[in-house]
Design goal:
Oligomer: heterodimer
Distance between the termini of chain A: 38 Å
Number of helices of chain A: 0
Largest sheet of chain A: 5 strands, mixed
């Protein structure tokens, strides 16, 4: 499974757009990129998933360049409630349930 | 969200106690998981069940004993734990371990049980 590298922490202010970049230099051809969000003392929650180019849903956008060696989670106009840890995961669709969580990025949104 | 529930939410136990954590999923999924999250550490996958059959055991000590009586319920039986076992224990479920193609299966997590071993 491909190793991922993310910033340990980020700070932002309400209303700003936040971009969290994840590096995955060893991504394999059949790997997908998935992002989860975790609030304190809660389980992680699926945010978005993609394979290439751009994916957008009601919560976030995911940008994946052509070489797929990195990806960027974009949160538009964050609020205080977006303060959480964000995890980038890379793995194939047939990984048999093996989600490998790294340290994640601790995002702190300030008023 | 009430898709995956866990009880109790908090548990304090001594090293000689026996307790059990319970997880229930109301999503009609076939796969269930136990994870451990220690302070300032990434989530660690402990066990994976698919259709009530254990398919993964990530070198977890025998003082942790999982049980999956049906596809909706998952238990983690605890026996003679150590203080370093104190952590947040998370249960998750997914439709299946493998999809026929396309995106990896999304896992849905419960709120966790905060375990403290004295």
């Amino acid at each position: 499974l491909a190793k991922t590298t993310q910033p340990i922490s980020m700070d932002s202010y309400e209303g700003q757009e936040v971009n969290i970049t994840c590096s995955h230099n060893n991504i394999a051809t059949n790997d997908y990129i998935t992002w989860y969000q975790q609030f304190p003392s809660q389980g992680p929650r699926f945010i978005i998933q993609g394979y290439k180019t751009k994916v957008t849903n009601e919560v976030a956008s995911l940008f994946i360049p052509a070489d797929r060696k990195s990806s960027t989670l974009s949160l538009p106009r964050v609020s205080l409630s977006d303060t959480a840890v964000y995890y980038c995961l890379v793995g194939p669709y047939n990984q048999g349930g093996k989600l490998i969580f790294g340290q994640g990025t601790e995002l702190s949104v300030k008023p | 969200e009430t898709g995956v529930t866990q009880t109790p939410r908090h548990l304090v136990m001594g090293m000689t106690n026996k307790k059990s954590l319970k997880c229930e999923q109301h999503l009609g999924h076939n796969a269930m998981y136990w994870y451990k999250q220690s302070a300032k550490k990434p989530l660690e996958l402990m066990f994976v069940y698919s259709l009530e059959e254990r398919v993964e055991n990530n070198s977890v000590p025998s003082r942790f004993s999982p049980e999956c009586p049906n596809s909706s319920h998952l238990f983690l039986h605890l026996h003679t734990l150590q203080p370093e076992d104190s952590a947040l224990y998370l249960c998750a479920s997914s439709q299946d371990l493998r999809t026929s193609g396309g995106f990896p299966d999304t896992q849905y997590f419960g709120p966790g049980t905060r375990l403290t071993v004295l």
